[in-house]
Specification:
374 residues; mainly alpha; elongated
């Protein structure tokens, strides 16, 4: 879409009653600032073009009002529909400028997250290769960083990040109209691969923590208390196992739901039974996700919060006679790290589910045939 009106066209079309509306003056600016394709504009160019298009539209409205008020010149009234058509061109052009604003902002955010994802992809690939070749386990710090990148970059490099952007233009444009940066699909694919690797490594860390706990000394009173603390950590991890599986399953189901809603949004005919079911599934999955998030907190609060029973016992045992930080502290830290990775696996899947549910909601609300079902 572009602004087709020129000064010469306006001067040939303009009735006497429209003189003084400022259209010709405004066109001198749009001829300079609005002729470039918005998709190739810089931020500064978009700003100038937005102001110019808004000014022109305002002046055209003044012209239309002046003509409509001149009841003596009936022939001039015939020009009004054309003026409103030019006003619509300004509106459509302004929309394209808003799309460009969002595209530029998305590209800026994407660039930094892409660099981080690429860096961690290489590190993660190296670590999983070493593990498979019999090397050492990755550190908890590294695994935590990689899983954090998967979570954050997954949200901020996917198309649905558009609806989460803080700029007002993001709420005014269709996601499908926003230009995705080069490498967006490749980055998303890398994050999916990193997810597989991190799950593999987290499982290895869990096995290592369990083996270390089993091999811990069990002779003195402090040994026995540490063993009991390790068992309590293990109990939390055991409770998390089915929850991690359920969270991963919910991630799959929410993606499938969003895909089904996308297909339904494009359907030419109304399928009331299907649309109703999609709406019900969406609401049920939203509720299920909240329940699972709460369950993760409830299971792990006893060691993640300083006031929790496990946390208090782990703190108190350090003061017991015979406590050795290298022997006892190391195995407790390893056990805690394993539990933390389990939490990350669950919250990562639940985070992805949230993103898919947001996509489902956006697609449903943007489709006329699905309105009223969500």
């Amino acid at each position: 879409m572009s602004i087709t009106l020129t000064v010469s066209t306006w001067e040939k079309t303009r009735p006497k009653s429209a003189k003084g509306s400022g259209v010709a003056k405004a066109l001198a600016v749009t001829d300079k600032d609005c002729k470039k394709d918005p998709k190739t504009m810089t931020s500064a160019e978009v700003k100038s073009a937005t102001t110019a298009a808004a000014t022109l539209r305002s002046c055209l409205k003044v012209a239309a009002d002046k003509i409509e008020a001149d009841k003596k010149d009936a022939s001039a009234q015939k020009v009004v529909p054309q003026i409103y058509a030019w006003m619509n061109e300004c509106t459509q052009f302004t929309y394209e400028l808003k799309v460009r604003v969002v595209s530029l902002q998305f590209a800026e955010t994407f660039s930094s997250m892409q660099d981080l994802a690429n860096k961690h992809f290489v590190e993660c690939a190296r670590a999983v290769k070493a593990l498979r070749e019999g090397g050492q386990l990755p550190s908890d710090k590294d695994l935590t960083h990689w899983m954090g990148t998967i979570r954050d970059a997954g949200k901020m490099t996917g198309k649905d990040f558009v609806s989460r952007m803080s700029i007002p233009e993001a709420k005014e444009v269709k996601v499908s109209d926003v230009t995705m940066p080069a490498g967006q699909k490749d980055t998303q694919a890398k994050l999916e691969k990193m997810t597989e690797w991190c799950i593999e490594m987290a499982k290895a860390v869990k096995r290592g923590a369990r083996a270390a706990a089993n091999a811990a000394p069990d002779t003195t009173a402090v040994d026995k208390e540490v063993k009991a603390i390790l068992a309590a950590y293990q109990d939390c991890e055991d409770k998390m196992k089915p929850l991690i599986k359920a969270a991963s399953q919910l991630e799959v189901e929410t993606k499938a739901l969003a895909d089904d809603i996308k297909k339904a949004s494009l359907a030419k005919q109304t399928d009331e039974k299907l649309f109703k079911k999609l709406g019900q599934d969406y609401k049920a999955m939203r509720k299920e996700r909240v329940l699972k998030v709460d369950a993760v907190k409830d299971i792990n609060i006893t060691w993640r919060e300083s006031t929790g029973d496990i946390a208090k016992r782990a703190s108190a045992v350090r003061k017991d006679p015979g406590y050795d930080e290298k022997v006892h502290g190391t195995v407790i830290a390893q056990r805690m790290q394993s539990n933390m990775l389990g939490v990350r696996r669950a919250t990562q899947a639940l985070g992805s589910s949230d993103t898919e549910l947001d996509r489902a909601e956006r697609l449903a609300k943007g489709a006329n045939n699905l309105r009223g079902y969500f």
